[in-house]
Design the sequence.
């Protein structure tokens, strides 16, 4: 009888430990700290990755959007920059990015007459294109839907820079 009782107690303790372990794993499955991140390139393209830091929260209402947490996107960067290789360096600035209304492109005065622009939607539709005629060019995006746009700067039929623009 004593051996049987010890065996039953052992099984019950094991079962309780098993249930406790499953509960702990389930509670913390989506929260972590990022030990590493990086970018991988291959013949098929480039992938950016982060291992960990999966928790964040977003709040939306009629006045705007707030995203808190560890995965905050900062969307101002140059996708390609081959201008310094092809010719003397051309200094370009695009701001504010992300934008809700207007986007300003600043170009060095000495390069104004040589450059063209092409603004394309994330679906590949040409939104606007033309010659850059002054050092400050304004793009009006208020009537455009939210999303990503690509602003390509061209000199002598060669892409100099491509900016990823976020419209909120």
Sequence:
């Amino acid at each position: 009888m004593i051996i049987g009782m010890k065996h039953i107690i052992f099984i019950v303790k094991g079962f309780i430990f098993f249930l406790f372990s499953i509960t702990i794993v389930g509670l913390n499955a989506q929260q972590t700290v990022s030990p590493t991140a990086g970018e991988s390139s291959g013949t098929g393209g480039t992938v950016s990755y982060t291992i960990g830091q999966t928790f964040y929260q977003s709040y939306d209402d009629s006045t705007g959007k707030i995203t808190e947490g560890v995965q905050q996107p900062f969307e101002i960067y140059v996708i390609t920059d081959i201008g310094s290789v092809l010719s003397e360096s051309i200094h370009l600035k695009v701001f504010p990015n992300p934008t809700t209304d207007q986007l300003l492109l600043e170009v060095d005065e000495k390069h104004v007459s040589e450059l063209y622009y092409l603004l394309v939607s994330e679906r590949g539709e040409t939104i606007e294109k033309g010659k850059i005629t002054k050092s400050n060019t304004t793009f009006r995006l208020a009537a455009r839907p939210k999303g990503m746009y690509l602003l390509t700067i061209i000199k002598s039929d060669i892409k100099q820079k491509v900016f990823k623009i976020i419209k909120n």
Observations:
- The chain has two helices and twelve strands.
- The longest strand covers residues 158-167.
